[in-house]
Design goal:
With 136 residues, the protein is mainly alpha-helical. It contains 5 helices and no strands.
């Protein structure tokens, strides 16, 4: 069982790292266009701010819990699991704050963009580090 979990965790870490790198590499213009599309879809579907925040938190928590479970059952020391949990909670917090700012202002600020960009960089580093730990 553990061998399968380690392999799945390795694949998940690589996917997490790749997604985070793509988020880090996205330009302000690209992110702003995505936000414009997101806001128009939300308006079109009559989604409230609380619905959007609830969905964001639920999906982010679901993915984070899945990743943490894989990390935990990969027979990694508990303090690394705790660091992963701490980083994912910080990412959830950043994501929610940026979403609140976007919903309030209708656009992404440079500060929100930079915070999201560096959060993505640290997520990519965490995914890479965990993949290396699993391979060793």
């Amino acid at each position: 069982m553990s061998d399968y979990v380690v392999k799945i965790a390795l694949v998940a870490s690589i996917i997490f790292m790749g997604y985070s790198i793509s988020e880090f590499a996205a330009s302000f213009k690209t992110v702003s266009e995505k936000i414009g599309e997101f806001l128009s879809l939300a308006k079109e579907n009559s989604a409230t701010d609380s619905d959007l925040r609830r969905t964001n938190i639920f999906l982010s928590c679901l993915l984070s819990v899945g990743y943490v479970v894989l990390v935990y059952f990969s027979n990694i020391v508990i303090w690394i699991v705790a660091l992963v949990i701490l980083k994912l909670v910080l990412t959830l917090f950043v994501s929610d704050k940026v979403l609140i700012q976007v919903l309030r202002d209708g656009s992404l600020s440079k500060k929100g963009y930079l915070v999201s960009k560096y959060d993505a960089l640290f997520n990519a580093m965490m995914g890479f580090a965990f993949a290396v730990i699993l391979v060793m």
